[in-house]
């Protein structure tokens, strides 16, 4: 077997291209995220160095004499962070002492500052622009200019306060939030890539499965397209070759059996001619009955083989119209056959073959039971169910599995009075299955026989 080239369409090549594109798109998405992600794309607060600056200033101011603290505060101010110190009698200190804060934010801020402070302060407060304290006069920032400021206040042992103000948020999501977001994005991206890759792999297989299904419905006319990856194309080629061999075998078998059945007519004709010279009328009548029975068997076999070898194309037709036509034909003959179901519904199949099937089923009901009702139901998935119900004696339960066997008859008689040789139901089953459906028989609880013909929508 030759090795596939790199340019040939194969499953391996498709998978490699999908993974490569996925990696490239991932890098592009990450670049776009860091370029346009705004606050989300900023570094973690622990990576900005802001916490180290705040912790250092707090420690220096705490140990400095009260007279030196304003000078230290002034020297510590930067373009990003402003500091202010208030003694315990200042009104700002009173506001910081009596204000309302979110416990979660306070605990989180202590978690970040703990590595940079020697001990837990006597009190720590955290708030943002939505807190009324941020609007007080005397705070070392312009609240009209900096609307996203963050505040951290620490109370010293002597009751004074130091207020640290981050004028703008220079950090992004916290580590837990960042990990959660990254995990979510990764999960979504893995799902998206998996769906794309699986679709690339499953689409040719679905196409192949659809072709095989059509091949089962119309084996004489359907050819599977040999498209898609090399591996799928090889499977399609193998199936087409196998189908061609099977079709040739069936054609040879059908031709041989039809020829045998046809050739049997000649000796039967000679037997009938010789029977004319028999003097005994009883023996002559018995011989003619046997000849007629054999002739009926041959005619039935030829009809069956013609149906089997038929190349009738599937067309779209009105299935309710066909069933109503059959019912009207038997009504014209004096048999009350009723149709119940929709007035119009399109179906694609072998029109004349299906007409022979339903005619045979209705005729069997009239001949062996009572004139039946024909009911048509359309399933939610578009399939058709045709029920032919009579009120006759039904069929013994042990015989139901065998009614579709060739030459099987319940009355064991093959004569012209009952008609047929036991190939009608076999032919009907073959035709229905060639349309992708099936046919079943069951005894009705209230009496009679129910024949169900399932025709899938193609």
TrEMBL record:
Its main location: membrane. The keyword Nucleus does not apply. InterPro entries: 2C_sensor_his_kinase, HAMP_dom, HATPase_C_sf, HATPase_dom, His_kinase_dom, HisK_dim/P_dom, HisK_dim/P_sf, Sig_transdc_His_kin-like_C. Its EC number is 2.7.13.3. Pfam families: HAMP (PF00672), HATPase_c (PF02518), HisKA (PF00512). It catalyses: ATP + protein L-histidine = ADP + protein N-phospho-L-histidine. PROSITE patterns: HAMP (PS50885), HIS_KIN (PS50109). Keywords: ATP-binding, Cell inner membrane, Cell membrane, Kinase, Membrane, Nucleotide-binding, Phosphoprotein, Transferase, Transmembrane, Transmembrane helix, Two-component regulatory system. The keyword Cell membrane applies. GO terms for molecular function: kinase activity. It is a multi-pass membrane protein. The chain crosses the membrane at residues 12-34. Coiled coil: none annotated. It comes from the Bacteria. It is an enzyme of class 2 (transferase). It is found in: Cell inner membrane. Residues 199-251 form the HAMP domain. SUPFAM superfamilies: ATPase domain of HSP90 chaperone/DNA topoisomerase II/histidine kinase (SSF55874), Homodimeric domain of signal transducing histidine kinase (SSF47384). Residues 259-458 form the Histidine kinase domain. PANTHER family: SENSOR HISTIDINE KINASE ENVZ (PTHR44936:SF5), SENSOR PROTEIN CREC (PTHR44936). This is histidine kinase. It comes from Gluconobacter frateurii NRIC 0228. The lineage of its organism: Bacteria, Pseudomonadati, Pseudomonadota, Alphaproteobacteria, Acetobacterales.
């Amino acid at each position: 077997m030759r090795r596939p080239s790199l340019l040939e369409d194969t499953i391996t090549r498709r998978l490699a291209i999908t993974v490569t594109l996925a990696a490239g798109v991932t890098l592009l998405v990450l670049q776009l995220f860091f370029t346009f992600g705004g606050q989300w794309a900023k570094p973690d607060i622990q990576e900005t160095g802001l916490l180290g600056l705040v912790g250092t200033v707090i420690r220096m101011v705490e140990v400095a004499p009260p007279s030196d603290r304003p000078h230290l505060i002034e020297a510590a101010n930067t373009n990003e962070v402003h500091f202010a110190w208030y003694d315990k009698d200042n009104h700002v200190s009173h506001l910081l002492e009596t204000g309302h804060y979110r416990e979660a934010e306070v605990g989180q801020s202590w978690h970040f500052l703990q590595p940079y402070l020697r001990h837990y302060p006597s009190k720590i407060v955290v708030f943002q622009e939505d807190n009324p304290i941020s609007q007080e006069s005397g705070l070392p920032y312009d609240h009209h200019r900096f609307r996203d400021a963050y505040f951290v206040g620490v109370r010293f042992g002597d009751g004074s306060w130091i207020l640290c103000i981050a004028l703008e948020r220079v950090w992004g999501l916290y580590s837990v939030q960042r990990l959660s977001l990254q995990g979510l994005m990764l999960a979504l991206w893995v799902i998206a890539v998996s769906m794309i890759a699986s679709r690339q792999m499953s689409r040719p297989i679905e196409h192949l499965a659809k072709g095989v299904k059509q091949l089962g419905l119309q084996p004489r006319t359907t050819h599977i397209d040999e498209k898609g990856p090399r591996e799928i194309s090889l499977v399609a080629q193998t199936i087409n070759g196998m189908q061609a061999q099977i079709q040739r075998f069936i054609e040879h078998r059908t031709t041989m059996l039809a020829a045998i059945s046809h050739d049997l007519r000649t000796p039967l004709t000679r037997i009938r001619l010789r029977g004319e010279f028999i003097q005994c009328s009883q023996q002559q009548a018995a011989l003619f009955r046997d000849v007629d029975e054999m002739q009926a068997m041959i005619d039935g076999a030829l009809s069956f083989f013609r149906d089997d070898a038929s190349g009738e194309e599937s067309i779209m037709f009105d299935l309710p119209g066909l069933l109503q036509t059959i019912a009207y034909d038997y009504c014209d003959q004096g048999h009350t056959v009723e149709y119940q179901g929709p007035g119009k519904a399109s179906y694609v199949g072998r029109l004349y073959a299906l007409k022979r099937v339903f005619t045979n089923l209705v005729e069997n009901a009239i001949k062996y039971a009572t004139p039946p009702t024909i009911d048509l139901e359309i399933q939610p998935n578009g399939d058709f169910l045709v029920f032919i119900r009579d009120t006759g004696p039904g069929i013994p339960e042990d015989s139901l599995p065998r009614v579709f066997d060739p030459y099987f008859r319940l009355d064991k008689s093959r004569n012209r009075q009952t008609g047929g040789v036991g190939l009608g139901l076999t032919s009907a089953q073959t035709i229905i299955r060639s349309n992708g459906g099936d046919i079943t028989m069951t005894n009705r609880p209230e009496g009679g026989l129910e024949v169900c013909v399932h025709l899938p929508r193609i």
